[in-house]
User: What shape does this take?
Amino acid sequence: MLEKALTGKRRYWTWVFFLLGIIGAGFVTYLWQLKQGLSITGMSRDVSWGFYISQFTYLVGVAASAVMLVIPYYLHHYKKFGKMMILGEFVAVAAVTMCLLFIIVDLGQPQRAMNVILYPTPGSILFWDMLVLNGYLFINIIVAWTALGAERQGIAPPLWIKPFIYLSIPWAISIHTVTAFLYAGLPGRHYWLTAILAARFLASAFCSGPAILVLLMLIVKKLTKFDAGKEALQALTKIIAYAMFLNVFFVFLELFTAFYSNIPGHMHSFEYLFHGDGVLVPFMWTSAVLGIISLALLIPSSTRNNVKILVPTLVMLIIATWIDKGLGLVAGGFIPNPLEHITEYFPTGFELMISLGVYATGALILTVLYKVATTVKEEAAT
Amino acid sequence: MYDKKVIIPGIVIFLWLFLLPFWYNMGKATPPPEPKTDTPVIKQLTEKKCIEDTLFMKTSHMQLLNDWRDSVVRERNRVHTASNGKQYEMSLQKECMNCHSNKSEFCDKCHDYVAVKPYCWDCHLEPKEKK
Amino acid sequence: MENSRRKFLKIAGISVLGLGVKPVVDVVASEEPQKYAPNAEALRGKRWAMVVDTRKCKNDCTDCITACHTIHNVPDIKNPKHEVKWIWAEKYGHVFPGQEHEYLDHSVENRPFMVLCNHCDDPACVRVCPTKATFKREDGIVLMDMHRCIGCRFCMAACPFGARSFNWMDPRPFVKDENAKFPTRMKGVVEKCNFCAERLAEGLMPACVEACKDKALIFGDLEDPSSEVRKILSSNYTIRRKPELGTNPMVYYIV
Assistant: This one.
């Protein structure tokens, strides 16, 4: 089926070569980083994880959110999701690939990455993260590719694929839970040391991931003959609204515990992120304001079901959750440092270029997979 | 055959690229390395022998060093008893390089020849050699 | 035909089983003398620990830092974002956050508190390391295996004491006087205080302890009732950093 990706209009090829160009630039920057060490990033002794690891965290959420299609379709037989099932799983494939790349570019000695398998350490959450992420990638490729193959031949997917689909549900939850456990089990990092972190991660994943999917569906509808269906998108938007509500509610729970208990360690990171003249303060407030506005627009069905309003709403939601998880979360955990010194963090141009290269790789994978999927679907329809 | 115009030049280009290392090195014979063991410390030895015999050292020094590094770092061992009962400190910098103080004439000679780049020297300090 | 295939499978199965058992047999059967052994002069302890007597520590003295950083080829990187440090001085309020108050004794407020890896009994860094590159030895020392570290920096996130440094760049150009008896590090690995494991192996005290003229740093075996650390701990009031986190630090402070 992959040959479908080799024929396309001029627009398609322009986009593919544009992405290849960015990937190339990112790769060259990465070679520079390999030579110079991670000193070309904004990370420091005090803020020892940065943009790479936070993008990884955000994208694990995007990957896990495919389950928001799988559960209604397979467990509740909500057939309207059937058409975009495969497209949701392909988002997961692209997102997990980006996650793995972000981990690799963050390593100080990437050529030793296989040590994680050579010296397996079940006590380390990172070991489990490696397992669940690769497993999830594998499951989604198998499930989506087999389903698409069946669709091309106009037959029902083979029965053996069912166990993989059911397995993908707990597996999706597990990838984001394990990712939260990377953070939530570390003593002395108060911003992360909270039992609700995994729940918060899942809530923000289940609103931001489907939001990205809805936008993608609207773009695909414009560019191809494939239409996910108005009703399906409205149902998905409803899921986004619930998840976003939970996400905002969970943040409120964190704030209450920190500030009503008045325990300094619990308040420090929030104070750093939202108060004073730290570099991240304007970003965090943008996130808070956009998050509230998007939630306010998602709750009434009149604004939620109006595509003209929905698009900016989802864009706001994605920005809000991305700042919260892809910028504030990691920096907030490290600042102030264990000795209560403040070292600021902001990604450098090199760091952003490498990240852009990884995102472009994900976009290229998604483009190719979507090209194949929409062509197959168009041919099957005629 | 379909697409003869594309396939045959394609195969030719592939073979040319694939065999590039051979074209590149054709007619250039590199003489086998002769690592030097004429350092001051070795000259003073009565029995000119490494901790094991030369054949073992040639074939297995990397294995030995690998065992040493795990044993020293992780198991607190520091003393190696050789097969003849002699004892040596398990240290690249303090033991090996004490005799072989000529890294460029000893280690590098063979490593360059077989094109391996051990990253020992990224951390371990090599003896200062007089140029 | 059928019969011979079954026979073949049986033999193959038993052979595979035999291969699996071989390492076990090897261990049981090996009675040859130990090829590798510790140094005869090595200092042996069951739970190494340190006491920092902050009352004796002088403000403008950097003897312990210099000794440690020279012996271990610690690079001298000026940019605080990229610096590498094994032992350094901090103010009271930063070492014991939450314990400072505005009426604090000035001598306590101004005196240096030396901080280093606590060699915790239940180290969070060891728990999170995905390759066992950082591990706790039987004698309590938390060590780094620089050969194995992949540079993921999970240990730096886990350490609640900020004891760990990462080599953001090649440290070699920043090592001024190389100690030929100790390696440097390469870029992309994490490092920290090793309680001078390489000196204990030769029967020597840690470099910082030896360098301190004022005897402010005391090192010894906690499980030896007659050791100096035990004597000091039983005769002085001592505190540890962040005991509430349950890592059980092995560095004690007399304030």
